[in-house]
Amino acid sequence: MAKFFSSGSLQETHMSHWPMVLPWPPHVSTSSCQVGGSETSKEAKALISSQSHSQAEKRRRERINTHLSTLRRLVPSATKLDKATLLGRVIDHVKELKRKALEIGNSFTVPTEMDDVTVECDRNGALKDRFIIRASLCCDDRPELYTDLIQALHGLKLRTVRADMATLGGRVKNVLILSTKVGEEGACLSTLKDSLKEVLGRIVFTDVSSQNTNLSKRQRTMPSFWSN
DNA sequence: GGCACCCACGATAGGATGCA
DNA sequence: TGCATCCTATCGTGGGTGCC
């Protein structure tokens, strides 16, 4: 074991950890201790380096514990769990939340994490001379999205019967119920899908160009939502 | 090469638990 | 009740790695 004090004064909180059998000063043998020599300078540098190392490690542990405390507050009935059990509980909690989100998503119009375009015929909803088409677009919410969407639909011989929109966490899902004349639905379906995909592609392109995915190791910063 | 960070390790303290 | 044992948290340290 090579343990020595990491600060100039005795550590009041950790003093009892110091083994009584070790020599003082630690890591400095009597044979190598030369007053005013380079050995002393080297050892002083080593001591400073070690102090900085132990302080950095302390800060790192504090960061970990801060995040664990945050998790403890976010998960129900986790106030008195040890760290390993807490992490297990967090995993279970996240799985449960995901399952509930999926349930809700199946019941209501809720945007998902995946970009998606669907276009399908609603044969049950067909009127006497008009054909019903159900189209949906799920993507990141952007101010220009609706302009793009209107432009995409413009020119297609479609009539909007209904439009639903749901947003969640910066994501948006638009569900459009459209109608077209019977006999024109075939051409409409493929054109509509292509137009919506083009809108999606435009969004994906602008999104990727604005992201910085190359964060270096030193750029690790606490996201703002963690500090809330 | 220096720095910052991460990970693993051994030492230690202190609480929880079981047992005589 | 006192003691032994186990478990968990914390600490300092050595060493590896990536970045500048």
Shape: elongated
> Any idea of the CATH topology of the domain at 116-206?
Alpha-Beta Plaits
Secondary-structure element pattern, one letter each: HHEEHEEH
Second-tier CATH architecture of the domain at 116-206: 2-Layer Sandwich
CATH level 4 superfamily of the domain at 116-206 = ACT domain
Report the CATH C-level class of the domain at 116-206: Alpha Beta
Secondary structure tally, helices: 4
Rounded to the nearest angstrom, the radius of gyration is 32 Å
Jot down its keywords:
single chain, 228 residues, MYOD Basic-Helix-Loop-Helix Domain, subunit B, Alpha-Beta Plaits, 4 strands, disordered C terminus, DNA-binding
Word description of this protein:
The protein starts with 37 loop residues before the first helix and ends in an 18-residue tail after the last helix. The longest helix has 37 residues, at 38-74. α3 runs antiparallel to α4 (185-210). The protein is elongated and about 95 Å long. Strands 1-2-4-3 form a four-stranded antiparallel β-sheet, covered by helices on one side. It is α+β, with helices and mostly antiparallel strands. The protein contains four helices and four strands, in the order ααββαββα. β3 (159-168) and β4 form a beta hairpin. It has helices at residues 38-74, 83-107, 145-153, 185-210; strands at 116-121, 130-140, 159-168, 171-181. Among the domains are: 42-108, Helix-loop-helix DNA-binding domain (MYOD Basic-Helix-Loop-Helix Domain, subunit B), CATH 4.10.280; 116-206, Alpha-Beta Plaits, CATH 3.30.70. The structure holds a DNA duplex (20 and 20 nucleotides).
